[in-house]
Design goal:
By secondary structure, the protein is mainly β. It has helices at 245-263, 268-278; strands spanning 3-5, 11-12, 14-16, 23-25, 31-35, 64-70, 77-96, 115-122, 125-127, 133-135, 139-144, 151-153, 157-158, 161-163, 174-178, 184-192, 203-220, 229-231, 235-242, 280-285, 291-298. The longest helix has 19 residues, at 245-263. The mean pLDDT is 95.
Length: 303
């Protein structure tokens, strides 16, 4: 049996270093947490719902549930979060909103205008239209811990995690974060039923409410880990968030060189050469204040 943490009254729009925690959880405990649909304060209620400027107030568009106090968590540990499953709501949406996206006309805020597509999500598919069904690939867009100082909006990201928007952060994956505060201060939100690489539309994966079932584990911090790490059934992965895009890529590859050298028997030079042959890498989003880049290595190549 899992314990459920409700979203009502517990939604935050920043990951903050000193925010009071809403509940305490224990390592190994199975938790179900409710996550609100992005931008939804009664905005998306039916397939006819529309996003309008009057209903959207930036930057309060990306709620996360939390923070959660993890028993025994302290700086010097890392927090490993394993996502077991995601139960999705029945309505998701994507939208074009001037000023938010890959092509922002930041002066006139004109672009394509305002467009909302609310969609039924059922039977393992996003029902894009009567003739197109897209297989779901559930993921958590915002996942992270309290930062070392101050607060970071839930539309942003950093070494603490936050709005990473990485498709590999979903059921079956373990995501590891450096802990900066006593108790860690875990936040979860911004779930997607489906997201394309780059998340080119600013309001625009299939945004959806969900219940995320997960558990946590405390581990000793790897010596040269700074950014979040991911482990799936088939890959290990590192992340970097930055602008310009090449800096995000550089960080992700640097973190992977350290991981391969420290835990998988490579020298740093060999690890760098190895990545030149086998790295699987891409930009997962370009619409947040800092871009996200992922570097993956298949486990079967590590011996």
């Amino acid at each position: 049996m899992s314990r459920t943490i409700k979203k009502d009254g517990n939604l935050k729009y920043a990951l903050a270093s000193k925010e009071p925690c809403i509940e305490t959880i224990r390592p190994g405990e199975v938790i179900e947490i409710e996550c609100e649909i992005n931008c939804n304060a009664g905005v998306i209620e039916s397939l006819d719902s529309k996003i309008t400027p009057e209903k959207v107030r930036f930057p309060f568009v990306n709620p996360a549930t939390g923070p959660l106090f993890v028993e025994g968590a302290r700086p010097g540990h890392v927090l490993a979060v394993t996502i077991h499953k995601m139960d999705l709501d029945e309505i998701g949406y994507t939208a074009l909103f001037p000023g938010s996206g890959m092509f922002p006309d930041w002066v006139r805020r004109k672009e394509f205008g305002h467009h909302t597509r609310a969609m039924r999500v059922a039977d393992g598919f996003v029902h894009w239209s009567d003739t197109r069904k897209l297989p779901i690939k559930p993921m958590v867009g915002v996942l992270g811990v309290a930062p070392i100082h101050g607060g970071v909006l839930t539309v942003d990201n950093g070494v603490h995690g936050g709005n990473l928007d990485v498709q590999e952060i979903g059921p079956g994956s373990t995501i590891t974060f450096d802990i900066h505060q006593e108790g860690a201060g875990l936040y979860v939100g911004d779930c997607h039923a489906l997201q394309g690489d780059g998340e080119c539309v600013g309001m625009g994966a299939t945004e959806i409410g969900a219940r995320v079932t997960f558990s946590v584990e405390l581990r000793e911090k790897p010596a040269r880990m700074t950014w979040p790490r991911i482990e799936t059934a088939t890959h290990i992965a590192t992340l970097g968030c930055a602008r310009p895009l090449e800096d995000a890529m550089r960080i992700a590859f640097e973190e992977m060189v350290y991981w391969l050298a420290d835990e998988h028997g490579f020298t740093e030079a060999e690890a760098y050469l190895f990545l030149g042959q086998i790295a699987e890498a891409r930009c997962t989003q370009v619409v947040n204040p800092k871009y996200t880049y992922i570097c993956k290595v298949a486990k079967d190549l590590l011996g």
